[in-house]
Amino acid sequence: MAAHDASRVPAWVAPMLAKPDGGRLRTGPEWAYEYKLDGYRAAMRIAPDGTTVLTSRNNIDFTDEFAQLAGVLAPALDGRAAYLDGEVVVYGEDGRIDFELMQERRGRYVRHQSGPKGLEFKDVPVRFLAFDLLQLGERNLMGAPYDERRRLLAELPMPDPYRISVVRAVTFDELAADRRTPGDFLAHAASSGYEGVVAKLRSSAYVPGQRPDSWLKHPLVRTQEVIVCGWRPGQRSFTGTLGGLLLGAHDPATGDLVYIGDVGTGFSQAMRADLQQQLEALERRTHPFAATPPREDIVRARWVEPRLVGEIVYRQFTRAGRVRHTAWRGLRHDKAPGEVVAPRAVPHEPAPAVEPPGQRITVQAGNRRLTLSNLDKVLYPADGFTKGEVINYYSRIAAVLLPHLADRPITFIRYPDGVNGEKWFEKNVPKGAPSWLRTVRVAAVDHPLLDDLPGLVWAANMAALELHVPQWTVKAGEQQPPDRLVFDLDPGPGTTIVDCCRVAERLHEVLTADGLTPYAKTSGSKGMQLYCAISTEDPAAPSAYAKRLAQRLARETPDSVTAVMAKAQRTGRVFIDWSQNNPSKTTVAPYSLRGRDHPTVSAPVTWEEVRGCRRVSELTFTAEDVLDRVEDRGDLLAGMDADRAPLPK
């Protein structure tokens, strides 16, 4: 520990800790709420002469490492001593707290410790965010209510807000006055990139070193400290480097060191190299656990002395004592192995509101380099189908998909939290879209145009699972007349795609008799669509023609077909939605994924398959199915434009 005038700097106390809230965010006028921060917990202890000591939660001296914070608050204290509790954080380029960047800074500091003391790393500035005040002047505030401590903290002037500021806190009553709830505050925390929310009892005292019910944390991402007990060499693209880590923690009941799983994502290349170097110096011949892990879990394992502590994010801790869906966050130099305790399994453990971040990689897509993130994030929970697999699908299907998107304004349906989370339609080009993305303005809306692989990969990285397009194109920025006719066959209650196939056969006869060539595809949901390539100069003509045919079939077989949109008319019938031809409407694009329970696709099918369909499963295709079909059959819609014909009057 660096030398400081200990007689004048307030004595260190073990920090008060927040207790997990069990997944239930507390509400009521007795509570206040703060953002849960993603940095290093630290005490800022200031002597009357301005001498400042920064100390970790374990009384490790941080002062030299964060030298740019020393003395920052002294001008506001007028010769008074002070003790602030808070976190030291680093911000990324997006304005959000970036723990990984803090870890990189930390690694650089450790490597340069033998150099000049007080190295500041000015290219990665740090900030102290205070959330409690334990002493001001000669007054010890730990017995004062939270409300009073926060009031005194808020009254302190912040001489340099770039280096020190106060964490925002809001009471239940303040939220209610704004017609908002603690849930709204939590949602804002999620959208702003915070770790979660801490609910604090407004009447509570500060209890050093304890984890009482008066501070309750509601994390959006579960984190766990782990002991690195072994590693696996990488394979394929990671050959020659570290592939993953084998993790341990102490059993909360016995204190034994137990195996709790592994982690293989979340590492940058630099982190892999740095970790491998450290671990090779700690090698041992046998595993360090009290009991041998399952054989299948330790294939190719190389064991190390259990000295390094790290942190992971995870989705679940199983009854078998394993962390699942993990991602690495970095080493924790402020923690000792003896402090690391395994989590307890919680039956039916609720999923976090925000998925843990996965690896961030840079890829070459066509002639563009794109940064992809959260590749391990599960977007289809029923199948474990991740965002990385979504991007892989769209990359591999691009050759046959892109011609059906070319020059057509795109409407996205985005599922950032997966198909079980909130979704939204997005017609306008979203903020942060790359400058090279082609766009077109139609009816006061700036639509994206996806005409190449980089654009498609960019959209998939935004979790734009569904791609919808109109039945017309744009040329030189001008909307063109419709070039496709579409019939959307929607099965009502009591019917399925099998019934849609029977209606499609009848439509095929009528359309062919009118000189058109219909092509079929599944919707990827419950129904199907028929397309014809047409030529017309009248934007209203396709809807009028489709409506006439739909009404004709409904008159001929009213028990099985309806042309009326009202849901009350659909039971036991297939609705022929002719309105999809309206210039303002869009239809899911061929080969688009759908936001259903499983990663199903709107897949082109042959008329032989339509006529032979007798079971729903026969025309239900997942992403993998469609990739195989395209490899075997190519694009079943490839000949559509060549079969273009004038729209019948």
Automatic annotation (TrEMBL):
Write the record's keywords in alphabetical order, separated by commas: Ligase
Q: Which family does it belong to?
A: In the C-terminal section; belongs to the ATP-dependent DNA ligase family. In the N-terminal section; belongs to the LigD polymerase family.
Molecular function per GO:
DNA ligase (ATP) activity
Q: What is this protein called?
A: DNA ligase (ATP)
Q: Which Pfam families match?
A: DNA_ligase_A_C (PF04679), DNA_ligase_A_M (PF01068), LigD_Prim-Pol (PF21686)
Q: Which residues form the signal peptide?
A: none
Q: Which organism is it from?
A: Amycolatopsis melonis
What is the top EC class of this enzyme, as a single word? ligase
